[in-house]
């Protein structure tokens, strides 16, 4: 298909030249340094974690006292206390 004549909008796009501005030269470039900041909450958690690492898993003095009571026959546990602890642990698991 041939189009005769001049189509002003189409030819106007190709005939007009657009000027692009040049980028000005920057004299100095400032570099930014990386900065790390730790929140107060993270610092508190870190302190607690260090304290936990230094705390032994087994309190040997408590274990020794209980062992002595058990061997002497003085260590008595009530059945109701055992039942209460079992029920409490079951209800905590379900919630």
Automatic annotation (TrEMBL):
Belongs to the FlgM family. The keyword Transcription applies. InterPro entries: Anti-sigma-28_factor_FlgM_sf, FlgM, FlgM_C. Keywords: Bacterial flagellum biogenesis, Cell projection, Cilium, Flagellum, Repressor, Transcription, Transcription regulation. The lineage of its organism: Bacteria, Bacillati, Bacillota, Clostridia, Eubacteriales. Residues 34-88 form the Anti-sigma-28 factor FlgM C-terminal domain. One of its GO terms (biological process) is bacterial-type flagellum organization. The keyword Transcription regulation applies. This is Negative regulator of flagellin synthesis.
């Amino acid at each position: 298909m041939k189009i005769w004549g001049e189509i002003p909008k189409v030819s106007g796009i190709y005939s007009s030249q657009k000027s692009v501005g040049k980028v000005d030269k920057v004299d100095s470039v400032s570099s930014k340094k990386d900065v790390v900041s730790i929140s107060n909450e993270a610092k508190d958690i870190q302190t607690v974690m260090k304290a936990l690492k230094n705390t032994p898993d087994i309190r040997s003095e408590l274990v020794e006292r209980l062992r002595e009571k058990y061997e002497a026959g003085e260590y008595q546990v009530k059945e109701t206390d055992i039942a209460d602890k079992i029920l409490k642990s079951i209800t905590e698991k379900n919630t």
